[in-house]
Amino acid sequence: MRRVGGSCSDAKTATTKDTKGHEENLGPGRSQTLADSPAIISDVAVRGRFITFEGLDGSGKSTQLEKLARSLRAHGLSVAVTREPGGTATGEKIREVLLHSATAGLSPFTEMALMFASRAQHIHEVILPALAEGRIVLCDRFTDSTEAYQGGGRKLGSKAVLQLHEILCGNLQPDLTILLDNEAAFSVDRARRRNRKHKGGRSEKGPERAAERDENRFEQESRAFFGRVRHAYLAIAHREPQRVHVINARGTPSETHADIMELVRKKLKI
Ligand code: TMP
Predict the structure, then answer these.
(1) Strand stretches in 77-163, DSSP E
(2) What is the rounded distance in angstroms from the CA atom of residue 134 to the CA atom of residue 79?
(3) Distance (Å) from CA 223 to ligand 1 centroid
(4) CB of residue 128 inside a 6 A radius of ligand 1
(5) Domains in the chain, ordered, with CATH?
(6) Per the CB 3.0–4.6 Å rule, which of 1, 30, 56, 231 could disulfide with 26?
(7) Largest CA distance in the chain
(8) Does any ligand 1 atom lie closer than 6 A to the CB of residue 161?
(9) What is the pLDDT along the chain (270 residues), one digit of tens a residue?
(10) Would you say the CB of residue 149 lies under 6 angstroms from ligand 1?
């Protein structure tokens, strides 16, 4: 099987390129325009299935994504696992700029632009080629994160995010979005505890691993910030109930996984 995504833990190495998707369809001498994008995307999206996971930091979505990937593979399905920001070599470099505590001075607009830069590359290099091959793509965060964190948390609003999504991402929509919901205080405390634990082991590992663990810029935000992020997430779910399904993340990981499997079975008809 050709590797497209790579797991969340090794998404840095997910650099497989497939040039069939975009460029060859466009033909020689034509550059990709705004008008081209949606058609290209709907052509390929009908084959695979695109599932995104969303939620606050510490909501348990990465664990649940891995569990779902294992279950789907056990059913014999071909699954690509990836994440945002990141998922490509370029995206992982952008991730470092975005999440490292040393770059805390980014303006909200810079932050939003970098999220979309990572995403545009990710769609081109990983997501569309995998969908074209008929694979199931499980993506840890997508544009809903930008709408919730930059639109809601940073107060940039939804309109700019949705417009950029249309321009830069051809308005690619997931077939299913699983929103893991929990109280902001609970999720963020969990994320902070996780980060403190990681930092404890820093001296034993190389500088690259240490940089990976210093991804706590957002976790340093206030409770009010995360309250706005959660509110924005729930508003998206309310606006798009067909696509976005809210899963209660207060149970044990196994209970949450069972709820997700029931939903995915219904949606994918497996
Ligand atoms: P992660 O820890 O779930 O990988 O996400 C990294 C952080 O980036 C998390 O705090 C949420 C934030 N983020 C945004 O603010 N906007 C976005 O568009 C994305 C994809 C992530």
Answers:
(1) 79-83, 136-140
(2) 9
(3) 16
(4) no
(5) 45-268 (3.40.50.300)
(6) 30
(7) 55
(8) no
(9) 233 333 333 333 333 333 223 322 222 333 333 334 444 444 444 489 999 999 999 899 999 999 999 999 999 999 999 999 999 999 999 999 999 877 778 999 999 999 999 999 999 999 999 999 999 999 999 999 999 999 999 999 999 999 999 999 999 999 999 999 998 878 778 877 777 666 554 434 444 444 555 677 787 788 899 999 999 999 999 999 999 999 999 999 999 999 999 999 999 887
(10) yes
